[in-house]
Specification:
The longest helix has 16 residues. It is globular and about 65 Å long. The protein has two domains: about 180 residues, no CATH class; about 130 residues, no CATH class. Strand 7 and strand 8 form a beta hairpin. Helices cover about 15% and strands about 20% of the residues. A six-stranded antiparallel sheet has the order 10-1-11-12-13-14, with no helix packed on it. Strands 2-9-3-6-7-8 form a six-stranded antiparallel sheet, with no helix packed on it. It is an alpha+beta fold. About 30% of the residues are buried.
């Protein structure tokens, strides 16, 4: 890890104002992905994986009938178009590389022929999965890998799947020391269902923070406690009067669980009420492993790292928004949580869009 990101101190010490919440504190690691060029030996989002050359690459074997959304591009083409967006400036005519110029001409020709295109055809099956995250224990000590494993690798299919309209995911634990020859050129999907399912390669700056539950995860009694304006005042929180009618909103925005990509901690909610996940094998309550986020922060900037605040406050051209470095979008700019069974790594994981 070659750079640092620091979450600003919370404006209020939660446990000091509400000691009842102290037992609910959990450690989490914000990953703070930022565009870069990770190698197979780096923790990353969307970067290359330390994958053994002799081990089959994961493929999704489900049926993939492509819905004619007007989007038919390979992951490589998605990233090339993003590069063009990133380099575009209204006051500067960019100089394109031959590869970029060829892509621009190809896309123009494709758009001209789109109306003449025939019906959508099924994707080539099985579909090679895309790297989503690679996390080494040395960088993310909050991981609890099984046995001698020290490396977590997560991939997904670049197509939505019924009935929940989300990419199918795959989770692998392995020992980095056991990987000899590395797969140099993994197979790539013919196309992606949606550009938000193609992560942009990012390096990470992991940071340990303390999280408290989303207010929806609290009991009715604790939720009512957060609504008590007098309790906030008596605790010396010094909330602005604009929060007097809805002090619970202050907790939800500034004090509860952090946004963005993270390991552990508490899950974000809002799309639905909290949904407990249970292991399909042993029925144990599953625990959050990784949050895959569409945004590192959204709207309110209370969680913007100190090192990003000047950039976050500025204007951004296409492809340069620091709050969406991975370019991932799941659901309607929601989050996907990966859950695992706490009793056995061999039990299947599950995931949830929220």
């Amino acid at each position: 890890m070659s750079f640092v990101r620091t979450t600003p101190p919370r404006p209020v010490e939660v446990a000091a104002v509400f000691p009842e919440l102290a037992p609910l504190a959990r450690p989490a690691m914000r990953l703070h992905p930022r565009p870069g060029a990770p190698s197979v030996r780096d923790s990353s989002v969307g970067g290359p994986l330390l994958w053994p050359a002799g081990e089959p690459w994961p493929h999704c074997k489900d049926a993939h009938l492509h819905v004619d959304s007007g989007f038919r591009q390979s992951p490589t083409e998605v990233r090339l178009e993003r590069l063009l967006q990133f380099r575009w400036r209204p006051d500067v005519q960019p100089t394109l590389t031959p590869e970029e110029e060829a892509l621009k001409k190809r896309n123009a020709a494709w758009l001209a022929k789109r109306l003449e295109a025939g019906p959508p055809r099924p994707a080539e099956c099985p579909v090679p999965m895309l790297p989503v995250a690679q996390l080494f224990l040395r960088d993310i000590p909050l991981l609890r890998p099984p046995g001698q494993a020290d490396l977590l690798q997560i991939l997904w299919c670049p197509y939505e799947h019924d009935p929940d309209y989300k990419p199918a995911t795959a989770v692998f634990w392995r020992s980095a020391a056991d990987v000899g020859d590395v797969l140099v050129a993994p197979p790539e999907a013919y196309e992606a269902d949606y550009p938000g399912y193609v992560p942009e390669p990012c390096v990470l700056a992991p940071e340990v923070i303390t999280e408290y539950p989303n207010s929806l995860d609290l009991s009715p009694e604790l939720q009512e406690m957060l609504e008590d304006w007098n309790r906030w005042q008596e605790g010396g929180a010094g909330l602005a009067s604009s929060y007097a009618a809805y002090p619970r909103d202050f907790y939800s925005i500034h004090l509860g669980n952090a946004p963005g990509w993270k390991v552990g901690g508490w899950p974000p909610w809002g799309r639905t009420d909290p949904i407990l996940r249970y292991c399909a094998v042993c029925e144990a309550q599953m625990v959050p492993l990784l949050t895959i986020a569409s945004w590192e922060w959204d709207g309110d900037e209370a969680w913007v790292p100190q090192e990003d605040q000047a950039n976050a406050a500025g204007s951004h051209y296409a492809g340069q928004n620091p709050s969406q470095p991975t370019r991932v979008e799941v659901g309607s700019t929601d989050n996907m949580q990966i859950y695992v069974c706490p009793t056995s790594p061999d039990h299947p994981h599950t995931d949830l869009i929220q």
